[in-house]
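Lay summary. Proteins are chains of building blocks that fold into shapes, and those shapes determine what they do. In this project we predict the shape from the chain. Here is one chain we studied, written as its sequence of building blocks.
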Amino acid sequence: MSKLYFTYSAMNAGKSTLLLQASYNYVERGMRTLLYTAALDNRTRVGEISSRIGLSAEAFIFKADTDLFAHVSAQYDVASGEKKPDCIFFDEAQFLTEDQVWQLCRVADDLRIPVMCYGLRTDFQGKLFTGSKQLLALADVLREARTICWCGRKASMVVRIDRDGKIIEEGAQVVIGGEESYVSLCRKHWAVKDLGDKDRSDPQADLPFDPA
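And here is the predicted shape, written in a compact code that computers can read:
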């Protein structure tokens, strides 16, 4: 049976890199993949999945009202000889709606196509995104992509910062940005809103941290 996968993390853990590498592995073996990303993500170009290390690929965009089961179904026609996708990838999966996560369950269960979703688990206030909450509840396989806090511990949380590098604690849940807008922290330093200093580390941290 095909499965629904959810790979989650804090910011800058390399989720898009993992997605693009996994898709490449399929394509390299002569298989077909479909890539999707949120229309909200305009950090580079809408309809493009890109990573911080320079990898990129074209992708379909999804909006809150996109019927993903119908869209995936329309991408191949068995009668015409169109090849069925071997795997489907979703970047920025935290922006999926509850209904869309159920639609992806149908893609896996009814169309028998594996679906791999990549996204953030929580927002800058420590609250679950809608898509992430539903994926955590419904996905067959949960995986964590890890990055590190300034102290060397695993970073599982994220804070939003302004142009002066000061932490913002109120505001809309969704503000698109990258390293200029968000910093990943461990739970301890997220709780006290400590961004750390570049010339110090936490002597109690378990170093070196293994992100694998």
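What the prediction tells us: The longest helix spans residues 15-28.
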